[in-house]
Please model this.
Amino acid sequence: MANIIINGKGYQVEDGITILEACNRLGIDIPTLCHDERLEPYAACRLCVVEIKGKGKLETSCSTKVRDGMEIETHSERVIRARKEILDLLFSNHPNDCLTCEKSGECKLQDYCYEYGIVEGTYIGEKKNYPLDESNPFYTFDPNKCILCGKCVRVCSELQGTNAIGLKDRGFDTKVSTPFDMGLATSKCVSCGNCVAVCPVGALMPKKRERYRAWEVRRVKTTCSYCGVGCQMYLLVKGDKVVGVEPAKGRPNNGLLCVKGRFGYNFINHPDRLKTPLIKRNGKFEEATWEEAYDLIVSKINEIKGKYGPDAFAGLTSARCTNEENYLFQKMFRALIGTNNVDHCARL
Amino acid sequence: MANVTITIDSKKVTVPSGTFIIEAAKEVGIEIPALCYDPNLEVVGACRLCLVEVEGSRKLQTACSTKVWDGMVVHTRSERVVKARKEILQLLLDNHPNDCLTCQKAGECLLQKYAYEYDVKFREHDGDRRPALVDTSSPYILKDDSKCILCGKCVRTCAQVADRQVLTFANRGFNTRIVADIDLSLEESSCVSCNRCVTVCPVGALLDKRLMGKGRPWEFEIKEVKCKVCEYGCDFEVLSRNGKNVAVRAKAPSNGRPLCLKGRLTTEFIYLDEPYTPYKKENGEFKETTWKEALGLDNIIEKLLDKEEISTGVEYNG
Model:
């Protein structure tokens, strides 16, 4: 354990953790744009700087480990001045369009500008002016809003393992890019959207089918229905319509999703979606109640079983069902119908 | 009153004759954008955003001030209407500061809402802009003329209480401004800080100063409470952020309810975890005061302490 002093108050924290981790655990809020506890420390945004007694320079708390006897100031005048300067520089090279920006309301740059009182970018000079990359069908990349925190690049490489994007060029010209700057459509991108989920600003945004502001939606936590992994995610609901999906932290997916879970939600509101069982009557499918459907299944099973025996049946179940549902399915086939002809699409 | 049937965006609706189009549209779930319209206030047709196309009329009509007639056919989102609305919003934005980044109203601002809906953005221009006259004299209300869109809602709500009538229009044309009394600061004026004007302002021109910096509108959890000071029972909202009650704000007053500073301060004192200093206006000057004095409880507290000999061991220092 290390004994440290933060803002004049003594604490005992675990050895080997960073100052930022220690502060997070103690409920001391330190701003950061590039930090993600799932990724290696990167210290790109410099917003998490703190003052450490005995050190000449301010240190980034996300990449500095605690030492016994450390005296730290997280909100001293000098620290706040540095953070204001960083935000001013970032916003000076950022489009001023919170009026209609889709990220407005959940943008970290906006949050910190409000908190630190940065009402405008005071540096007048060149601004980034790149074309938008809209080649991916699920999301848009606007390099002009990018603050180069590198989270997208690191998530793609460290967690997703796709390595579709990287940082290109140096200095003012640095840009998140695909190989040879040929655009997302030709890259290795698998459209998982994990870069979109970590982007702190409006640079990576899902292509919306419904227009909504961040503050107009409710978040409803649910389990992804696509496969047996059971990823946790939030459905973004506006009124009574699902308008988007965001990954949830924690088990099993810890903030990651795949293309299906992340972007494949349109079936929910689709007019063709089946909402009741259909029974074919006179060569036409008609809507029926579950009672009618179950009665029909039972009578047909009994009829066929009586005529041809239980081995006339085969059951194939789905990976979209839970383990419990699949267990019950095979139980029904073995115990109720009396056949071992039961299989599963994910067995291969 | 006889009923009339009209068609709005091919939906038929029957309403009493004399109803305004904007209200008839609401009956069938059609929202017509408006900045200056408020069912509790006199109709003025100032913002022009509620323009709709009425078949047979050459010009676009304001839905807030045009009454329905039998057989009327209205189009609320035709190409012509949308074009006019975009133009109005663009003109309003041309004379509005681009600071949604940190504006306290962002998230609840109607100008922002409609700009997003109609996809209108700020543009560069070298024309004049409204001067940034910010009145910071009141500890309760921040008045920023540069953000004002001259909808006049504040003037109308202020005038509804006979002994107030503080806010009014001054000057003409581009120089039109909302002023208090004879262009006095809110501190010097007869303003009683009831915040009626703040509750109706569609933009960030009139803000509750005690809310500034407490958080963004989308971060608050909002609980509605009734004022306990008098029989009117005005509505207030207690705003909490990260589990802490940080601010109280007035809700728009309904008919016959005046709203007052005392009610708001009392509600603050009851609900806020850390109520901040109250101020009292004396001879045209805001002065820091104690809660005892602000809530008019001096005599009561003294009498209570005297009569019941309440002794908590903690000195009450207001």
Summary: The longest strand of chain B covers residues 235-241.
